[in-house]
Design goal:
The chain has 416 residues and is mainly alpha-helical. It has two domains: 183 residues, Up-down Bundle (Growth Hormone, Chain: A), CATH 1.20.1250; 209 residues, Up-down Bundle (Growth Hormone, Chain: A), CATH 1.20.1250.20. Helices cover 71% and strands 0% of the residues. The radius of gyration is 21 Å and the shape is globular.
């Protein structure tokens, strides 16, 4: 699928900040996600809420991630994506603050966290669709890397600091400070050129948006990319489960908490920022599958008998390095598929990105089944084994078609 590529000036007198600076806008999302994913469950557990209820509330709140593309077309009509990004960030802040004040009303808490994640999962397509119109083609991997790194850093810092603010300060003051810090990255928007608002009104835009969306859905290259992200090539879902099996490595709770906070944040940022370095030498799509293969072999190497706290730290940091690098490449590949002057840039980003969220939902379940049947070894072998199989299948899927129609596909996805 091709959209007309032009390099004309973007409206607005300001000069576009570098790609790495634009990526820092994702700090906002990461910061509030840390509160919703880590701090709220911590506070619920302290109140004696059963783990099953906590897990159910958290699981329900993640559902918008897989279905946000259904409402993402709204980001491409009516108002500019800049306005949508600001509104979504403010909504995310308000709903996060409300979540922290609804800990005694679990049904309402579940609803508010669900709505907060609607804002969370739409904010990224809003800024990605906006920024993709401002950058040159070779800057997209850098933007993707810094968006991934900023999200990881925001998540890690807020998950560590939020509980301290809420415990050491009057509760409401802590909530206000969390929201102000989380919204601080929006100050970056002042320095970013405005994009023209869509020329169509909400009423008149239904037909054109539907036709453009239909073009995406008929594009086999887009479907192949979504298949690549929907299978567990480079999901590394162990990042979500290893903290619960620290005892298998004879690691104390304090050590698990330290590595789970500081270690994984540093590893995640490092992995994300290394991705554009390797993109200069390898095609992003081939690199994504390669990361899946290398990461799977790393996971299998953890089967060595000496299960020590050091091995736990190596596992946590290493899995986060590979996962963040993979996420950075997912962003890079999606941004490359968008191109400039794409009338449905945010919709396209949301649709493809939703495929990448799917394995994050089902892989922890499969990993858990592996642990239930074979302990830690079963857990590691299921995760690594499925990833290896997926990487091999995707290599076969992409290699031959790309060679046959390389010129046609160059507009959307880089060659393998």
């Amino acid at each position: 699928m091709k959209f007309k590529q032009t390099v004309g000036p973007v409206s607005g007198a300001r000069r576009t900040p570098p790609a790495w600076a634009l990526g820092l806008a994702a700090l906002c999302n990461g910061a509030f996600s840390g509160v919703l994913v880590i701090t709220v469950p911590q506070l619920l557990a302290a109140r004696g809420v059963p783990e099953l209820q906590i897990a159910s509330i958290s699981g329900l709140s993640f559902l918008p991630g897989a279905f946000n593309f259904l409402v993402a077309p709204i980001l491409d009509v009516g108002l500019s994506r800049r306005v949508y990004a600001i509104v979504l960030a403010l909504g995310l802040a308000a709903l996060t603050a409300l979540s922290l004040n609804l800990l005694s009303d679990l049904p309402m808490l579940a609803l508010v966290m669900f709505l907060a994640n609607v804002c969370y999962y739409l904010y990224t397509p809003a800024i990605a669709g906006w920024f993709a119109q401002l950058l040159a083609h070779n800057e997209e991997p850098v933007l993707g890397a810094w968006m991934s790194a900023a999200s990881v850093a925001g998540f890690g810092c807020s998950s560590a600091a939020a509980i301290l603010l809420l415990r050491s300060l009057p509760f409401e003051l802590g909530v206000v400070l969390i929201c102000l810090v989380g919204l601080a990255p929006l100050s970056l928007f002042y320095f970013v050129p405005h994009e023209p608002a869509p020329t169509l009104s909400f009423r008149d835009s239904f037909g054109p948006v539907t036709r453009n969306l239909g073009r995406i859905m008929r594009d086999r290259h887009i479907w192949r990319m979504m298949a690549l992200f929907a299978v567990p090539c480079a999901t590394f879902s162990l990042t979500n489960t290893l903290s619960g099996v620290g005892r298998d490595f004879h690691a104390s709770e304090t050590f698990v908490g330290l590595i789970g906070g500081v270690g994984t944040t540093l590893g995640g940022v490092f992995g994300a920022l290394m991705a554009p370095v390797f993109v200069k030498r390898f095609p992003p799509l081939a690199l994504y599958i390669g990361i899946g293969l290398l990461g799977s072999l790393f996971t299998l190497s953890l089967l060595i008998p000496a299960r020590t706290p050091f091995l736990f730290a190596l596992a946590m940091v290493g899995e986060n390095v590979f996962q963040s690098a993979a996420f950075a490449l997912i962003y890079a590949l999606i941004l490359r598929s968008i191109g400039r002057n794409n009338p449905i840039a945010s919709t396209q980003f949301a649709l493809i990105n939703a495929a990448g969220i799917v394995p994050i939902v089902y892989m922890p379940i499969l990993d858990g089944l592996g642990y239930d049947r074979g302990g830690l070894a079963g857990n590691l072998m299921v995760d690594a084994g499925l990833s290896l199989v997926a990487c091999i299948l995707m290599t076969l899927l992409f290699t031959k078609p790309w060679k046959e129609t390389a010129r046609e596909q160059a507009a959307t996805v880089p060659e393998l």
